[in-house]
Amino acid sequence: MCGIVGFTSDEPAAPVLLRGLKCLEYRGYDSAGIATICNGQLNCGKDVGKLDEVCTNHNLIGLVGNTGIGHVRWATHGGVTMENAHPHCDCKQEIAVVHNGIIDNYEELRAELRSEHCFKSQTDTEIVAHLLEEYVEEGLSLEAAMRKVVRRIRGTYSIAAISVREPGRLVATRKDGPLVVGRDGNRKFIASDALAFMEHTHDVAYVEDGDIVVLDEDIVFTNEDGAAVDRAFKTIDWRWDEPTKQGYDYYMMKEITETPDAIRCALEQDKDLILDMAMNILRAKQVVFTACGTSRYAALVGRYLFSRLAGKFCDVIMGSEFHYFSDSVDKNTLVIAISQSGETADVIQGVKKARENGATIFSMINMIGSSIARMSDRSIYLNCGPEIGVAATKSFMSQLAILYLLAFTMANRMDEGIQKVRDVCDTIEGVIETNGLRVERIAGLTKHNNSCYYIARGINFAIAAEGALKLKEISYIHAEGMPAGELKHGTLALIEKGTPVVVICPKDYTFEETLANAAETKARGAFVIGVSEENHAMFDEWIEIHATEEIFYPLVTVVPLQLLAYYSAVARGNDPDRPRNLAKSVTVK
Ligand code: M6R
């Protein structure tokens, strides 16, 4: 989703801003731009399209000035047009603003400002530039003007601004949006994601809700009332690797193959922390997982594991719905938030509400220092490194690994759990190898179908749902995943001759019943793709998996489904790393 960078020092800002935006590209965007200040003039270049194209077409690298801001936009308010791309400027071209999030009351503010100001875009962001202009004209500094703007706007936001009247200075603020500051001597950075400046510095401080931060020779944080607040700098321990495909056509394939390592790294946790979390989960009166998309499917696997291994029932509520249940959330509730990015706005909203109600928050996060990690009483990091493909793959496996670790610990079998997950992990490399060509061929057979269904029972139901999510998000084929038993309660009406039905049926205690459901689809002409350790006459195509213990099947069944989605996307000419309309980090509600 949108990404912000800002930089001030005594060297040219444009190259640093563009490098920063490059690092944020993976989050998904439709337009890009930067603004710099030089000799009392604001230089701004922006457009629709990929960063490299915008950079070439508008000579962004040639925008002179040592202070600047940059942005990659994922459209919310207003279409994908050059006018709507950020930065947005005031009427006099003196102030430039970039923004992440949504300003809820922008229509009312726009109506108020319209008679005196000339609006060039349809965005909610532009009102910030004009409001700043109003207040600066009243004689306020950019910082004081920003403080006044914050009192006028409602919504979720991270905002950074520069003004020709105060060269060498950046002013920024946030509410429920990510914003982090970095320093390296006289070079000061701000970004919505520390990855944007990780190659320059690991010395960071997080901007908190309501803070106004000013970056010039110093970095000063103040609160809504202008009083100084202390935001400690710390070194984040994240090795920066230039994202490269390392010979793979797409990041997604690279990341699928990194799965075994991702699982092993996820198992490397502080045992005391795991023990403490497991005990708290067991003791809690009510445990609720909250997450979105793929992370929610990991939570569904977790729910099953907690029940099966430790007899602990938990609920799973999707992030965007959780706050509607806040009447039932109190100090006896333990919330487990799962999120790769740690910045998913829907999850943040639910977690915030739960905290207000006194709940304890645990989280499982990949991005170090992200908002959800910082809102949590305890947080476990996935340790799988940056995931660039929009489709979550290795991070899902890391989430599963940690859920196994917790569940086994809850059953007082931590070391056994670690060993067993490691053993299964060794077979996953084989799954990728054995199935690559076969799955690619199957994707070729089904690439023209309009719909595809995924069914499974028990712990693998979540994998059916995840397989379907993967397929639809990158191949754009309509897909649904459901418990096999649920099929006949409605969806069976959609099965016709040739409809692909992926049947996940390992040879565990769900095998016969799942196969019976597959037979119901077959009788109506379905093209049955079986995912099992043994072939069966029912299957038109068979994807082979390794035999394992029932609870570990998700680790081996999901990989071929990720591959099926990948090859389907490629066969249909799509870029699996950057699916249309989607963003890696969903920072708006
Ligand atoms: O960063 P999060 O794990 O909180 O993201 C949640 C979802 O947006 C994410 O899993 C999304 O569904 C993925 N694109 C799925 O591949």
Distinctive features:
589 residues; alpha/beta; Glutamine Phosphoribosylpyrophosphate, subunit 1, domain 1; Rossmann fold; 3 domains; six-stranded antiparallel beta sheet; globular; binds 5-amino-5-deoxy-1-O-phosphono-D-mannitol
3D architecture notes:
There is one protein chain. The chain has about 600 residues and is of the alpha/beta class. The strands form four sheets. The protein has an eight-stranded antiparallel sheet, with helices on one face. Helix 7 runs parallel beside helix 13. Bound molecules: 5-amino-5-deoxy-1-O-phosphono-D-mannitol.
Helix content: 25-40%
CATH topology of the largest domain: the name is: Glutamine Phosphoribosylpyrophosphate, subunit 1, domain 1
End-to-end distance: 11 Å
Physical arrangement of strands within the biggest beta sheet: 3-2-4-1-10-9-11-14
Helix/strand class: alpha/beta
The tally of beta strands, per DSSP, is: 24
Catalogue the unreliable spans: none
CATH class of the largest domain: Alpha Beta
Mean pLDDT: 94
- Number of helices in the DSSP assignment: 17
CATH homologous superfamily of the largest domain, by name?
Answer: Aminohydrolase, N-terminal nucleophile (Ntn) domain
Bound molecules: 5-amino-5-deoxy-1-O-phosphono-D-mannitol
β-strand amount: 15-25%
- Molecular shape: globular
Number of domains: 3
The main pleated sheet reads as: 8 strands, antiparallel
Radius of gyration: 25 Å
Level-2 CATH architecture of the largest domain: 4-Layer Sandwich
Oligomer: single chain
